[in-house]
TrEMBL record:
It is a multi-pass membrane protein. NCBIfam families: ccmC. The gene is ccmC. This is Heme exporter protein C. It comes from Wolbachia pipientis. InterPro entries: Cyt_c_assembly, Cyt_c_biogenesis_CcmC, Cyt_c_biogenesis_CcsA/CcmC. The chain crosses the membrane at residues 16-37, 57-78, 85-109, 121-141, 153-175, 195-222.
Length: 235
C-alpha cells in the first residue's frame, strides 16, 4: 500500500528531484508570461496582473485543506499514521498560500475597490480558512501524546472542512464586491486566453512548489515522528 511508511518514503525520494526541476521550469515560464508578456487589463491596468499569484494561491488554499480533511478521514477510519503525518505536513503550505491569497487580494482590492479590506462573504470566509489552518496546527502542538494529537486534529479538519464550499460559493450566495468565478462556471470560461495561459502556468508552478515543500516536510517529520509516537504510546 502506498500509504505505508516505507513505500511512500521511497516514492517521495524518487519523485522529489523531478518535481524540483518541473517546479523551476514552471516558475521561469510563469514569471515571463505573467509579468512580461501578459497584457494590461483594459479596466484595471497593471494591477490586474496580481491575479496570476492571487488566484492560484486561492485555489491551492482550498485544495490543500480538502486534502488535509481527506487524509484525516483516512487516518481515523484506517488508523493510518502516515496519512495523519501527510495531512500535518501539508498544513504549513496551506497557511502560506492562504496568507498570500489574503495579502494579494488586499493589494488588488486597494487598486480596484479603493480599500484594502471589506467584510464581505468571500473575504471573511477566506480569513476564517486561514485561522482554521492555524487552529489545525495548534491542535497538533497541544498534546504531548501524539496519538491523541493526530486524532484530535483529524476530527477538527474533517468538520471544519464545511468552510470550503462556503468560500467557493460565497460569491453566489451573498452580495459581495468580489467577482464571481471566471473559469469553473456555467457557460464556460469567461477570461481571455492572454490572461488564462499565465494563470494556468502559475497555477502549475504553485502545485509543483507545494508538492516539493510537502514531500520535504514529510520526509523530515516521518523520522522524528516515529520516535515521538513510540514514546507517547507508553504513557
Amino acid at each position: 500500500m502506498l500509504l505505508s511508511p516505507t513505500s511512500f518514503t521511497c516514492f517521495s525520494k524518487k519523485a522529489l528531484p523531478w518535481l524540483m526541476v518541473i517546479c523551476v521550469l514552471f516558475f521561469i515560464v510563469g514569471i515571463l508570461v505573467a509579468v512580461v508578456f501578459s497584457p494590461e487589463d483594459y479596466k484595471q491596468g497593471e494591477i490586474a496582473k496580481v491575479m496570476h499569484i492571487h488566484v492560484p494561491a486561492a485555489w491551492l488554499s482550498l485544495a490543500i485543506y480538502c486534502l488535509i480533511a481527506l487524509l484525516s478521514f483516512i487516518s481515523l477510519v484506517w488508523n493510518n499514521s502516515v496519512a495523519a503525518i501527510l495531512a500535518y505536513s501539508a498544513a504549513p503550505a496551506g497557511v502560506v498560500f492562504s496568507a498570500i491569497c489574503l495579502i494579494t487580494g488586499s493589494i488588488w482590492g486597494k487598486g480596484t475597490w479603493g480599500t484594502w479590506w471589506v467584510w464581505d462573504a468571500r473575504l471573511t470566509s477566506m480569513l476564517i480558512l486561514f485561522f482554521l489552518y492555524i487552529g489545525y496546527l495548534a491542535l497538533w502542538s497541544s498534546f504531548f501524546n501524539k496519538v491523541r494529537a493526530e486524532k484530535s486534529a483529524a476530527v477538527f479538519a474533517i468538520f471544519s472542512a464545511i468552510n470550503i464550499p462556503i468560500v467557493k460559493f460565497s460569491v453566489n450566495l451573498w452580495s459581495t464586491l468580489h467577482q464571481p468565478a471566471s473559469i469553473i462556471r456555467r457557460g464556460g470560461i469567461a477570461i481571455d486566453k492572454s490572461f488564462l495561459l499565465p494563470l494556468i502556468t502559475m497555477f502549475m508552478f504553485c502545485i509543483t512548489f507545494f508538492l516539493v515543500v510537502w514531500i520535504l516536510h514529510f520526509l523530515f517529520l516521518i523520522n522524528s515522528y516515529k520516535i515521538k509516537r513510540e514514546i507517547s504510546l507508553r504513557y
